[in-house]
């Protein structure tokens, strides 16, 4: 059984100061930028939401499932998965709703269980698939509001994944970021509906 390194576990200096696992040096900055863009514009830029979640998913799977230790290969996998996500979002929007919801829910499920130190391969897959199905169903049935909530939670989780703090502080920051994202996007949605 392969064991996934828990969030917050020490990372060697040769890899990075990124707590979610990995082999990256530039990645924390990329994660923060993607997270902020999802927090404030996830609903307005559905294609970006699907592409960003695809990128993060590709990067996470390359590290945790495939065991890739090369930054170039990890980034290549992430870019390919993200580009496929963007293409699906542009050309097959109905399918992209399912894929985007699934990938966002899967990432959120993964972040949730690893934050509690539940890191076995079996738990990883249960959280990944279970979170993915919940995310897909939410996005399918409640598109605007589910997209606001999923992109805000995913954006907050992605930002938190790039920094290493104590778990209580991480949780507090993730909640504040999520609420801020929901507030900003809801305000934009309500303004659009008025006009």
Describe the overall structure.
With 195 residues, this protein is an all-alpha fold. It has one domain (27-188). Helices cover 75% and strands 0% of the residues. It is built from 7 helices and no strands. Helix 2 (46-64) runs antiparallel to helix 3 (71-91), helix 2 (46-64) packs across helix 6 and helix 3 packs across helix 4. Mean pLDDT is 79; it is low at 1-20.
Low-confidence stretches: 1-20
Q: What order do the SSEs take from the amino end to the carboxyl end, as H and E?
A: HHHHHHH
How many helix segments? 7
Tertiary shape: globular
Proportion of residues in helical segments: over 70%
In round numbers, the mean pLDDT is: 79
Count of individual domains: 1
Q: Structural class, please?
A: mainly alpha
The rounded Rg comes to 16 Å
Summarize the main sheet.
Answer: none
Task: Tell me the β content.
Answer: under 5%
The count of strands amounts to 0
How far apart are the termini? 55 Å
């Amino acid at each position: 059984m392969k064991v996934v390194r828990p969030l917050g576990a020490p990372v060697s200096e040769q890899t990075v100061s990124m707590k979610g696992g990995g082999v990256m040096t530039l990645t924390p900055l990329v994660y923060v930028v993607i997270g902020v863009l999802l927090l404030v514009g996830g609903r307005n830029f559905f294609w970006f939401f699907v592409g960003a979640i695809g990128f993060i998913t590709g990067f996470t799977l390359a590290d945790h499932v495939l065991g890739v230790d090369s930054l170039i290969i990890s980034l290549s996998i992430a870019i390919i998965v993200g580009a496929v996500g963007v293409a699906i979002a542009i050309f097959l929007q109905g399918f992209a709703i399912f894929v985007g919801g699934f990938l966002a829910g899967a990432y959120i499920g993964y972040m949730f269980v690893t934050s509690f130190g539940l890191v076995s391969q079996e738990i990883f897959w249960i959280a990944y698939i279970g979170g993915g199905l919940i995310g897909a169903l939410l996005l399918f049935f409640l598109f605007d509001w589910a997209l606001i909530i999923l992109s805000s939670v995913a954006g907050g989780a992605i930002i938190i994944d790039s920094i290493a703090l104590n778990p209580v502080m991480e949780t507090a920051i993730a909640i504040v970021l999520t609420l801020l994202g929901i507030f900003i996007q809801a305000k934009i949605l309500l303004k659009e509906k008025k006009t």
